[in-house]
Design brief:
Layout lengths: L2 H59 L4 H19 L5 H22 L3 H4 L2 H36 L3 H7 L23
Helix pairs in contact: 1-2, 1-3, 1-5, 2-3
Family: Belongs to the LemA family.
InterPro entries: LemA-like_dom_sf, MamQ_LemA
Membrane topology: Single-pass membrane protein
């Protein structure tokens, strides 16, 4: 066999091996993005299950704060509905969850106005559970964004961008907070 043919075969084999490795790496990262989103989903489900108990506990002490309860209930229902729809885009899900986060914050602010509620053990337990869930959610969101960053970088960088475009790998969306949540809170005394 001619040495040029052998070199050409070796080069082709190396290119094919690289392409397979690049494709598998992209698939692996895409699956990590899906897994990270699923971890967020688990935490969001736990939070959605906890919210009605928290609302009912606060209702007993602050019956005249019906607007806050309505907001929380509507935001929770929307978040659960969006989560149940398999065609929901991540951006829609993120928006619904951000709305629920704002409603929960308003509920907690309302609860602070009732000292007898602050002394209620059931409320304190629910609030502690919610705090723990919010911390887990923050970690899960951070992990998700880290994985998305790695995946998107792999899609954009040479030479794996060639494989990514050939096989239609799409960039993943970051989990971002709503613009309204970026505002600096105003503290008044």
């Amino acid at each position: 066999m001619n040495i040029a043919v052998i070199i050409a075969i070796v080069v082709v084999v190396l290119i094919v091996l690289w392409a397979v490795g690049a494709y598998n790496g992209l698939v692996s990262l895409r699956n990590r993005v899906k897994n990270a989103w699923s971890q967020i989903d688990v935490q969001l489900k736990q939070r959605a299950d906890l919210v009605p108990n928290l609302v009912e506990t606060v209702k007993g002490y602050a019956a005249h704060e019906s607007e806050v309860f309505t907001q929380v209930t509507q935001a929770r229902n929307k978040a659960v509905q969006v989560a149940a729809d398999p065609n929901t885009e991540p951006a829609q899900r993120i928006q619904a969850e951000n709305d629920l986060s704002r409603a929960i914050f308003n509920l907690q602010a309302t609860a602070e106005a009732y000292p007898q509620l602050q002394a209620n053990q059931n409320f304190m337990d629910l609030q502690s559970q919610l705090k723990t869930l919010e911390e887990k959610l923050a970690y899960a969101r951070q992990f998700y964004n880290d994985v998305v960053q790695k995946y998107n970088t792999k899609i954009e960088t040479v030479p794996t961008n060639i494989i990514a475009s050939l096989f239609h790998f799409k960039q993943a969306d970051y989990y971002q907070i709503a613009e309204a949540d970026r505002a600096v809170p105003q503290v008044k005394f």
